[in-house]
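Model the whole thing, not chain by chain.
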Amino acid sequence: MLIQLKNLTKTYLRHDGAINAVDSLSLDIPKGSFVTITGPSGSGKTTLLLILGGLLKPTSGKMRYDQKELNLQKEEEMATFRSNHVGYVMQSFALIPYLTALENITIALNVKEKGQDKNQERALELLKWVGLEDRTTHYPKELSAGQQQRVAIARALANNPVVLLADEPTGNLDPKLSLEILEVLKDINQRQGTTVIMVTHSPMAAKYGNTKIQLENGKISTL
Amino acid sequence: MRLTNLVIKELWHRKSQLTSGLLAITLGVGVIVGIRTISVVSEKAVAVNLDNLGANILVLPQAASVDNYYSADIDAPTFPESYVEKIATSTLPGVDNMSPKLTRRVQLENGNIVLTGILPKSEIASKPIWQQGGLLGDKVTASCAPKAGTKPAKYLDPKLQRKGIDSLAESDCFIGSAVAQRLNSKEQGKLTIEGKDFTIVKVLPETGTVDDDRVFANLHTVQALLGTGEQVSAIEIMGCCSEISDGLLSKLRNVLPDTRITTIGQIVSTQIETNRMMNQISLVFLIIVLIVGGISIGNYMWANVNERKKEIGILRMIGYHKGHIYYILVLKAFIMGLIGGIAGYIVGTLAAVWLGPKFIGIEVNPIYLYLLLSLALSILISVVGSLIPAYMAGKIEPFSNMQED
């Protein structure tokens, strides 16, 4: 198993009481799988994805990655985990507006300090792979929504992650572009063997998963 | 892509914010540089002014009147010429030069003149014991002179001229402009005083003081002519302005307890007081700039961090550590400090160069050392002001970019 969750709970304290966004959840994710997480709003999909990506500390529970237990409370350890093993694709693309398409990718490569020339070469290779080799110097606002999401995918793949996390990656795209992006994700999963975990509302997108998880009130209702 | 490039691109992306953020620090540093530049140049100018006026401290016998600095030595009682040596051997700091004088009113055929015996520089220099006292040679101008490599301040007033006389032979004399007019005398003409013939080697330009009515001759000639022996009625001292304010007069009084020691009060006190006030103002401004500038930059950085929560969240999401975030923000503050320091130096120096001649009649030259000090001050304010916002930025959660849109 690539990822194993055991009794994971995330509790949010609100003025009207505590809410368990993720409630004693246990889950095994095999390496190379394409996992889709669906469920109604407030079911804990995004919270689960954030914890899986080392972006959010759970209140309790354990997570093992590649047979090793992660210390989810140590921020800097999780930052290293994120840069070494995880790529992220967000609904809002999460690109830095004052950086060009190429720079948005090299900024991710920069964390690992491989050298400017190598980083540049790798970023160009990725842009070519997502079909944007002629948009290297374009800023996000000069790109279409679909192109921005392709740049975001290229950035997510920059450090050869083992896991690609996608939070509603087609949420801001029309059906045609959504299909294009889903095909790209499928390609990443099948050709590169990258484990893809995608949160989605879209039944069409959910079909792409070979492991389908439905959440309700922070618990798995269907697997 | 290097983090430095990221910081520069972000600064350029928010140009208008950068401009307003820099305004406070530029103006603050500019004000300090302006005041300090004028103040330092003014201090040098006071030294030049006093130097141009000649002596600025007068040693008189105890019984002398000191109503008027310029005429206090006329017909004053006398004291021994050896007092000059007493001062010379005391090695007081700030005594840059001195000149003993003997002055008496003398009746001529066509009116009265004031005869003043002075010791020319050549005779002062010939006395080894005075040189040992550090009065001459390289040490003469050490305390007040501008430091090596800096341009001395220049007074724009052409009336201020050096009065020192380099050499004066036994039968030569200099005469004031009023005397020359009254006696209808010209240079190389003859003048007979108390039965002795003098050659007029120079007619001094008009000064508007009692000196215009004086005839200057060699001190020892005048002493012999008047039969006073080795007595003088005054010793003029060229004292350093800052040393005067630091108590040179009282130190001189300790050396010569039976004399009266006075100074050109209005020049020394007013200008030194002005300089002291400017120094105090610049210190007050320094404190204000440190506090206001630091708060201003802190406020700007705080707003910037809040605006960039999403960006910082993205960087944290893709694996940037807290240290990277601190580095990005402190580097930004450093660059802002650098720009603010240079801009502040330019603004302050230009203001000083423009305002100096207009308001205090001093030609002001830029002080290049202040560029380094401006940079240090500006960078310090900027970096210190950004520390709390940078710390807070490090606390931004890596998923902050998912909380919008």
